[in-house]
Give the backbone structure.
Amino acid sequence: MVGCGHLFKSLSQSLKRKSTGISTTSSKTFIAASFVSKEHKMEYSTANKHHHFDHQSRALDFIDFVNASPSPFHVVHEASTRLEKAGFERISEKDEWNLKRKGKYYFTRNGSSIVAFIVGDNYQHGKGGFSIVGAHTDSPCLKVKPISKKEQVGYIEVGVQLYGGGIWHTWFDRDLGIAGRVMVQQEDGSYQHTLVHIKKPVLRVPTLAIHLDGSANDAFKFSKETHMLPVLATAAKSTLNAVKEEKSWGPDQTKNHHPALIHMLAETMNVDARQICDFELCLFDTQPATLGGVYDEFIFSARLDNLGMSYCSLEALIESSKEDLSDESNIRLISLFDNEEIGSTSAHGANSNLLPSTMERILSSPIGSKAPPKNPKVAFEQAVHKSMLVSADMAHAVHPNYTEKYEENHRPQMHKGTVIKVNANQRYATTAPTSLILKEIARQKEIPIQEFVVRNDSPCGSTIGPMLSAKLGLRTVDVGNPQLSMHSIREIGGVDDVKNGTDLLKYRKSSGLVSKRVVEIVLLHRNVDEGQVQVESVDTTIDHPYARALSTEEPDSIDPNVIADREASLQVTSWIQTNYIREKNHNVPRKSMYEHYQTSCASNNLPPVNSATFGKLLRNVFPDLKTRRLGTRGQSKYHYCGIRVRTSQDPEPIPIAELIQENSAAAKRRCSHRRSFTSGSIATITTASSTEASSSAAPSTPSFPTQATSNADYNQLPPFSLPLLPSYRYNDRITGDIVVDFTTIYEQHCRDIFNLVCTNQVRLIQNLMQTFYRELPERFINLIQTVPEITDVMWKWDCVLYDTIISRFLPAINHRLSQETVSSLRSFTREVRNHVESSLIHYPTNLVQKKADVARIFSAKFRRQLSLNFAAQSAANILNHQHLVNAMCHDWNNFDVDGIMDQTLWVCDCDTQQIKHILRTEVYQLLNNTPDIENWMFWMGALVEKYLKAYTPASINEANIYLSKCKQFLLKWNFYTALVMKGLAVQNSPSFTSFHTLRLFLDDYILYLVEENISQVNHNMMQRQNQAQNGAGEASTSSSTSASFSHLSNQD
């Protein structure tokens, strides 16, 4: 270490003079000010405020973790920050521990290793064990040498050591920053442990040009000592920018390191260069981690090995700490070690006493009112044999270009689950019992699992698992998420694997590593050591925490950050506006306001939203609202500041029920036909009006079975109504019993199709259809061929089936679907029409045509909604990630709205003030106050409702005028949004991609809303014409069928 003798000498003097000594608990982190990005200013409480993470949200949070952790010291600092915000208490190894039941604690060693644990409420010394997850914080890198000053042929270089087994050729030609810890001497003689993170690319290891090394592409050979020296500056520029020292106290590190490096560190930390006494610095790739791949399915990042599993371990413990610990009899513990990449033999590595001493300290400490055991050694041995260790280190995914390097039956893939690693020579510590435990947990929690074994002719790496297993006698399983390019400067991982790994390691009352009902299978069974695992006598049932694909049950709890449906949002917003107004220097207790709202709902027989959703909607009404804790010590309560209750002198409040009826009417009008496949369009009316036979050709909307649209449960197919046949249709061959029987078997046939779609078995549908029509009894075939009403009701029943399928999978535009489900549904929509036509070869042409038309329309509509759903999820992922929203807010604040208006003055006849209000106020508030996809959808709906309110046109001419108005609205929308995107591109906005993703969804969604309005207007028009025709006796069902589908036919 640089200046080691001076440090210890000064340190000993400092300790004699001052008891504080080296301050490590109040360490600071410095980042070069000009290179701080918004993402690193995001507080973890915001990023982790959701109890539920989907796969991409979890991956984005992991990316934040990696970008904030360029060195093991930063990993521990970031982990400490997250633990403290989750309620963990910091303790020290040098202090006495007084632990409490349900207590959450953590401590660090050397600033690069960290241990965190939770004490179960039911834990007792000697009776409970430890549920441990171990990982490591270090990764291969270049570390600055104690004497790093080097200069060659006019270049200033930095001497580095190679740490670990990196793929070193990947470090050439990369933009490198510097991070680590610095020992800073204070004016009072004490020393402070300080973290530094310089994100600016200040170093680079250049390669030799191909012209001077013709064999570079054949075999890239280099000297690790002389060719891997990063360039810091040129000597000429360094001389010109030299800084003259003003202070004389403190060591002079410029003797060992170039002044440019020392002064850069000092400037970043805002200290004098002479205050820098020593440091441990490593180089890192300045390119931040990011999502990649055409579907954003990959994570391109440095240090995936092993920050990937360190993150999963940390987040699993944090999330489990929020659960009820009353039945917990174990100690839940994670230990993140340093120096794994170099063998773990250090004071803070896995081969140290860090984990054993932690376990012994816990066992020798009083827990609440319980005294420590009389014989801690015996208690320790008891606890060890009731414990389990998961060694969590990244695993190798199969490489598509080097498949021959992998054992053919053990080729892990990304997105297919966490990997259990097995090695007969105990390079991994997995055994059959420990593998069984993890597989059982994964099975019960429906988390995919893979297994990995190296080829016999291939070397095998190792982990901390065998080391700790041998040291402590712990039963151990080695696991890891699959990745490519391990130990490269840039590695590749899978988005889905982050959440899979976290969920697998997550402790739960009913499922997890500490569940007795699972652990007893192996760990606590008497005959396990004899190899006799008797699982039949043990209850291994685990209540699965997630709803299955076909489950009709609602989740136990709803994420309080998700905005309620549109009607509830309108209700709350209207109630707030009616009962509260803005007033400076006034405060309203938060609890009292919510109780006021609950009372109003109770008096009107309305279900209230939860308090978190209420608070979010309150900020929609009052964007600048502040929340403060007011009152005396011990009696303080949270208040909303800047509002008050309306008084009798203010405008009278409107009753809440009337507000709901008024505000939800538009939404109900849109929703009433949103899922109807027979609603027509303005185009249909226009087509009909173009024919001379306007009275007979005007289309009418046939009446449908209404169960699908009225039934709130879309998880099952509603019963079919019996067709009503004229009396003259009945004869000896066509009876009422035959009609009833046919309705029953056709309903069951549709139900079978629905079930196959719900279970992702769409490949079986073709055979099901062909078998049904091929084996249909003769009496039913005769019914279809001779009774046209049966033909009509069959395609109506098909509409109910398809309508229910859409409602089952997409109850809302932004409803989340798994990739497997989306793939299955897309396959079904592609093939369903062909299945129908191939199954009805020998049936009447009229039946084939109608059923094929309905299938085609369903396919087109469902594909459209799936596409819209995908766009919604993409936009939601942007809006749910706070650092991206912060960047969007910053860019929008700097956006030139007036420039947009100047470009549109002569093109559009829009109200300039309204457009400015939308761009400057409404979009600004959406970004700054509640960046949620639900709020954007709500805003878009209100926008369309304001400018394109649906109504019933009195004539064809009025309908055509409305259609033209809709077209103009869409053209203007696209014109303005195109100018906005152009403006963002011109000003080189960092958030351009985020805005582009959001715009893609908004464009698609506003088109969807406009089409819904057109469909509503068309439906109203056709109903009016149909009533007129029915009055004149001129209604024609067959003509209405084809006419009502003509618009969608043109759009397919």
About this structure: The chain has 34 helices and 24 strands. The first strand starts at residue 23 and ends at 31. Residues 141-208+224-292 form a domain with the Aminopeptidase i, Domain 2 fold (CATH 2.30.250.10).
